[in-house]
C-alpha cells in the first residue's frame, strides 16, 4: 500500500499563499499601475479571498513592498563585474525579464507602477522609512561591487563610487521608462568601467583602439 504524503504544515501553506499573492500582485500592478490595482483583483487572480491578503500583508503598500523586495533580490543577483561580462542597466528590468520569463511589457508596467509607489510612499511618514531601507539596500549592492572590483589606491571612496554607479544605472532606467531611449550598451558599459576603475578602463580602451 502506497504511503500517503505528509500533510502540508500551516507554515508551508502560509508561505505558498504569500508566494501566490506576490506573483498575482506583480501581474496586476504591472497591468494597471499601483493606484488602480485592487486587493480584490489580486486575491481573485491568486485564487483566494481578499481576507487572505490581509492575513498575510498589512494592506496594499505592504504587498507592493513584498513584490519590490523579490524584484530587488533577483536584480541584485545579476549585478556583476562590467570588466568581465556584458553589462546593461539593471534598473530597466530586462535581465530580470529574461531570467524569470516575464514579458518586457509586464516588466515595463511594473517599473512604471514602482514610480507611482515611490512618489506616494515618499510623502507618507510610515512608508518613507521603509522605502529608504530599500534604497539603502540597493546602494549597498553597488558599493559592494565597487569594493570588490576597483583597484587599490583610488582616491574616491568605494561607497561614493557605489552611489555613482547606482545613479548611472537607475538614471538609465528612468530615461528608458520616460522616453523609450536605451543607452548604447557599449557606452553604458564603458561608463560603469570608468567609474569603478578609470585607469584600467583607459588601458583597455587604448588596447582595443
UniProtKB/TrEMBL annotation:
Domain HTH tetR-type: 15-75
GO molecular function: DNA-binding transcription factor activity; transcription cis-regulatory region binding
Keyword field: DNA-binding
InterPro entries per record: Homeodomain-like_sf, HTH-type_TetR-like_transc_reg, HTH_TetR
Presence of keyword NAD: no
Gene3D superfamilies, per database record: Tetracycline Repressor, domain 2 (1.10.357.10)
Positions of the DNA-binding region: 38-57
Signal peptide: none
Domain of life: Bacteria
PANTHER family from the UniProt entry: HTH-TYPE TRANSCRIPTIONAL REGULATOR RUTR (PTHR30055), TRANSCRIPTIONAL REGULATORY PROTEIN (PTHR30055:SF241)
Protein name: TetR/AcrR family transcriptional regulator
Amino acid at each position: 500500500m502506497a504511503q500517503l504524503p505528509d500533510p502540508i504544515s500551516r507554515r508551508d501553506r502560509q508561505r505558498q499563499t504569500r508566494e501566490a499573492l506576490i506573483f498575482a500582485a506583480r501581474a496586476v500592478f504591472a497591468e494597471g499601475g499601483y493606484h488602480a490595482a485592487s486587493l480584490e483583483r489580486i486575491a481573485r487572480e491568486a485564487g483566494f479571498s481578499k481576507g487572505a491578503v490581509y492575513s498575510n500583508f498589512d494592506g496594499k503598500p505592504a504587498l507592493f513592498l513584498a513584490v519590490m523586495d523579490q524584484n530587488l533580490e533577483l536584480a541584485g543577483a545579476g549585478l556583476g563585474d562590467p570588466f568581465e561580462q556584458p553589462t546593461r542597466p539593471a534598473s530597466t528590468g530586462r535581465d530580470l525579464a529574461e531570467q524569470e520569463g516575464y514579458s518586457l511589457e509586464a516588466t515595463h508596467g511594473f517599473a512604471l507602477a514602482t514610480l507611482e509607489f515611490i512618489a506616494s510612499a515618499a510623502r507618507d511618514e510610515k512608508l518613507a522609512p521603509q522605502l529608504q531601507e530599500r534604497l539603502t539596500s540597493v546602494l549597498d549592492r553597488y558599493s559592494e561591487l565597487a569594493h570588490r572590483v576597483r583597484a587599490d589606491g583610488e582616491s574616491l571612496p568605494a561607497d561614493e563610487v557605489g552611489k555613482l554607479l547606482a545613479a548611472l544605472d537607475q538614471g538609465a532606467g528612468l530615461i528608458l521608462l520616460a522616453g523609450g531611449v536605451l543607452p548604447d550598451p557599449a557606452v553604458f558599459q564603458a561608463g560603469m568601467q570608468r567609474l569603478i576603475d578609470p585607469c584600467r578602463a583607459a588601458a583597455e580602451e587604448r588596447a582595443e583602439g
